[in-house]
Design brief:
cell wall; Pectin acetylesterase; two-stranded antiparallel ribbon; elongated; hydrolase activity; mainly alpha; PAE/NOTUM; single chain; secreted
Length: about 80
């Protein structure tokens, strides 16, 4: 049975996703070309990269690191394309 709390939480998540998707600014990708010479490459052989966006408000001095995880070999293969 779906509770009112579940509906509210789902609504909040949907609103948050909508606001994030509609962002007008795109965070640029920075490639680390110098890492290739040291053997640090992605699964497809391309140079590693990162995205950085300055924080604001209470989060100005905080970091968020997102590292996608592949649990299945088939998923890892998708990331190499």
């Amino acid at each position: 049975m779906v509770t009112l709390r579940t509906i509210r939480c789902t609504f909040v998540v949907c609103v948050m996703l909508f606001l994030n998707i509609k962002s007008s600014e795109e965070v640029k990708i920075t490639l680390i070309e110098s890492a290739v010479a040291k053997g640090a490459v992605c699964l497809d052989g391309s140079p590693p990269a990162y995205q950085f966006d300055k924080g604001f408000g209470d989060g100005v001095n905080n970091w968020l690191v997102h590292m996608p995880v592949c649990r299945k070999l088939s998923t890892r293969y998708i990331f190499t394309k």
